[in-house]
Design brief:
- It contains six helices and no strands.
- The chain is mainly alpha-helical.
- It has one domain: Up-down Bundle (Four Helix Bundle (Hemerythrin (Met), subunit A)).
- The longest helix is centred in the middle third of the chain and has 31 residues.
- It is elongated and about 65 Å long.
- Its main location: membrane.
- Keywords: Membrane, Transmembrane, Transmembrane helix.
- It is a multi-pass membrane protein.
Amino acid sequence: MSSVIEVPQGSSYVAGALLSTVFLLAGQSHVVSVHRKAAGIKYPQTYAEQRETEASVSALKFNCAQRAHQNTLENLPIVYATTLISALKFPKAAAAACVFWSLGRVLYTRGYVTGDPAQRLKKGGALHSLAILVLLGTSLYTAGSLMLAGI
């Protein structure tokens, strides 16, 4: 048995919100590159060694920039899945939560690259965490509704 999926009105907002993550990743990649150059960390070295970070604030900031970017990549599949599932019933809420997640990650990154990792949570940790909770809740509701409807 086949089902017809209707694209809900407001899906263009979801497309724009998902695109915000592309700009986020591009920005984070740039930040990592700037800090890599400042620290003198050559490719293919992924992170500065501990002795390098102890000797150079630039190396520590590079590690912080690299970690912020890596953590974003680790969370991105969750954001994509929950945004797309939520958008089936709540496209505007899904889009807003996804954009707030991206904005929260920008603030998170800006806090992290100060060289004090604790600043990552003071500068956006709550915003992107709240966005994830909204996406998780709305995607669970959407998935449950679809299952109960037999779709």
